[in-house]
Amino acid sequence: MAEIKKQLSLKFSDKSYDILIGKGLLDNAFEYVSKFVKQNEKIFIITDENVAPFYLDMVKNSLEKGGFKVFYHIFKSGEHTKNPENLIMLCNKALEMGLNRSSLAIALGGGVIGDLTGFFASIMFRGMKFIQIPTTLLSQVDSSVGGKTAVNLPTGKNMIGSFYQPEIVLIDVDTLKTLPKRELKAGYAEVVKYGILGDVEFFEYLEQNGKKILDLSEEELSFAISRCCKNKADIVVEDEKDLGLRALLNLGHTFAHAYEGYSFKHEGYDINHGEAVALGTIDAAKLSYNLKLLDEKDLLRIKNHYEKLELLVNLKFGDKEELVSLMSSDKKATGNSLNFILLKGIGKAYFQKGIEKEEVLKVL
């Protein structure tokens, strides 16, 4: 039996949708999906090899019992899946299966699957409906909310994409029980980001309850996911197309995307997105401190929280000049200057243009 613990609504100028947070949602997928697609229509579930053994049959069986014809594709897990070749493959497969604009796509997985499925849905038949069912903490609190979709290029992450909103986001916290501890910590790095960038009360809550969240304590976990989704929703409703305020959500990401890009090009650098965001957020705090924006007390509070929960990976990136070059190709860069989300205090993030390369090198 499904149990809804939290419900949030996002209202854009041309579309509204809900985020449902609860337990048992996947086993009752038909109840929620049937509101957005006609009976006997075709549904295309896109997932990966880590998620499929646990949840594909659960969702597929619920939908088929309700009368839908269900197709699926299982990708290899990992960031390398999010590429233009796989995007085109999905488009061709959709035609082979006889999908049309009335069909529905479902992203069943983490951020990679959500980004790829969302972009596929945004361009297929000039737009088909899709639903987000995020199964990682990172995707539940971040990538499944707000409508950013994309694939990567060899020259940079998320370089081809669109803004395209789902019909609904179904967050089933039961899926986190099968999530490896490393991935859970990676998701928590995005959780704490919300407190640091604009919600000091939430950061204080995390200082007291972070371990309970990582231990999957139901009350604290549901509250944290809901608070993150609300914080993100409040921002993206004001700035859906990332023209101003939404940039604050990229705290730590200019550094993080450089670290991820570096790891794609060099062997021996095993880092996932959440781990890169954790390092990047610390680096953004250090840069803010070096520029006399952030006081030492707040810098140490941020560092201590990450260290206490063992969120930081121990990696040394050899070529700092290459990292700066990767930052220069980031979507947030303008002209020859480096732009960052910096901090004037915990909960006080802002967008700063024109940071000198030498200041960045001091942090790396």
Which tags fit this structure?
364 residues, alpha/beta, Rossmann fold, Dehydroquinate synthase-like, alpha domain, four-stranded parallel beta sheet, three-stranded mixed beta sheet, 13 helices, 46% helix
Number of strands: 11
How many independent structural domains? 2
Helix content: 40-55%
Beta-strand percent range? 15-25%
The helix/strand series, from N terminus to C terminus, equals EEHEHEHEHEHEEEHHHHHHHEEH
- Shape designation: globular
Instruction: Identify low-pLDDT runs.
Output: none
Ordered list of secondary-structure elements with their pairings:
Blueprint: E1 3-11, E2 16-23, H1 29-33, E3 42-48, H2 52-65, E4 69-75, H3 84-96, E5 104-109, H4 111-123, E6 129-134, H5 137-143, E7 148-153, E8 156-163, E9 168-172, H6 181-198, H7 200-214, H8 218-238, H9 253-265, H10 273-290, H11 296-308, H12 320-328, E10 338-343, E11 349-355, H13 357-363
Parallel strand pairs: 2-9, 3-4, 3-5, 5-6
Antiparallel strand pairs: 1-2, 7-8, 10-11
Helix pairs in contact: 3-4, 5-6, 5-8, 6-7, 6-10, 7-8, 9-10, 9-12, 10-11, 10-13
Structure description:
The protein is α/β, with parallel strands linked by helices. The chain folds into two domains: about 5-175, Rossmann fold (3-Layer(aba) Sandwich); about 190-360, Dehydroquinate synthase-like, alpha domain (Up-down Bundle), CATH 1.20.1090. The protein is about 45% helix and about 20% strand. It contains 13 helices and eleven strands. It has helices at about 30-35, 50-65, 85-95, 110-125, 135-145, 180-200, 200-215, 220-240, 255-265, 275-290, 295-310, 320-330, 355-364; strands at about 5-10, 15-25, 40-50, 70-75, 105-110, 130-135, 150-155, 155-165, 170, 340-345, 350-355. It has a four-stranded parallel β-sheet, with helices on both faces. The longest helix has 21 residues, at about 220-240. The protein is globular and about 60 Å long.
